[in-house]
Amino acid sequence: MSRLTSSARAELRLSLPDLHSVRAVQLASASRSSRTDTAALDAAADGAFPSCAVARCRLSLHGGELGGDTRDASQQRRAQLQASLVRFLRACPRGLLVVHDVHALPPAVLPALLPALSEAGQYTADGVPVPAWGATVILTAALPGFDDSWAASESLLARHAKASLQALLAAAAGGDEAAQNLAKAVRRRIDDVGPLRVAAAAAA
């Protein structure tokens, strides 16, 4: 998984004035996303990664739209998500993946995202490896209890945001040991965190 360059970070900050201290590929969101919010972030991401925009190598997903009404349906959506990611990475091995509201991604679907978050991650399709490590991934999440005190330092923000997201994901998956392990797997793959207030920027 690639990391944001300094120029990409600067472009994101210019595009979204309320986006502060962005250091890498994951962003924690202070407020629940709306369609306007996600459009603003997608536009900012295109500005930060113009080569991806020109090549149409940005894939935007919405966590709340990737589940099913039953466990079987969610398993089917997991397979569909993995297939979509494989197609995207084959076409755009250094593309940009934006996952809005990752906290809303159903537990049965979430494992399909893990290879894309891993430092040396890859998928396998038809027995052929499909590397994911060259892609850049931006995650957003609405985190309960978020307040400006979290942003007093980068380390404090990262600690609170990662712990909050881990708790959300574990609770959604049932809270048992397997759920905790899944949530920890996501947390370990988050490099850095920045506060995101897209709604304020979009309304300005």
Describe the structure.
By secondary structure, this protein is an alpha/beta fold. It has one domain: 3-Layer(aba) Sandwich (Rossmann fold), CATH 3.40.50. It is 45% helix and 13% strand. It is built from eight helices and seven strands. The protein has helices at 6-15, 35-48, 50-54, 71-91, 114-117, 154-172, 177-188, 198-203; strands spanning 28-29, 58-62, 96-100, 122-125, 128-131, 136-139, 195-196. It has a three-stranded parallel β-sheet with strand order 2-3-6, covered by helices on one side. It has a two-stranded parallel ribbon with strand order 1-7.
Examine the coordinates and then state which fold CATH places here, giving the name of the CATH topology: Rossmann fold
- Beta-strand share of residues: 5-15%
The sequence of SSEs as H and E is HEHHEHEHEEEHHEH
Total strands: 7
- Low-pLDDT segments, ≥5 res: 14-34, 198-204
Order of strands, widest sheet: 2-3-6
| Terminal Cα span | 33 Å
- Helix share bin: 40-55%
CATH structural architecture? 3-Layer(aba) Sandwich
Class by SSE composition = alpha/beta
Shape verdict: globular
Total domains = 1
Please give the largest β-sheet. Answer: 3 strands, parallel
Radius of gyration: 16 Å
SS element count, helices: 8
Reading off the top of the CATH hierarchy, the class is best stated as Alpha Beta
Mean pLDDT: 78
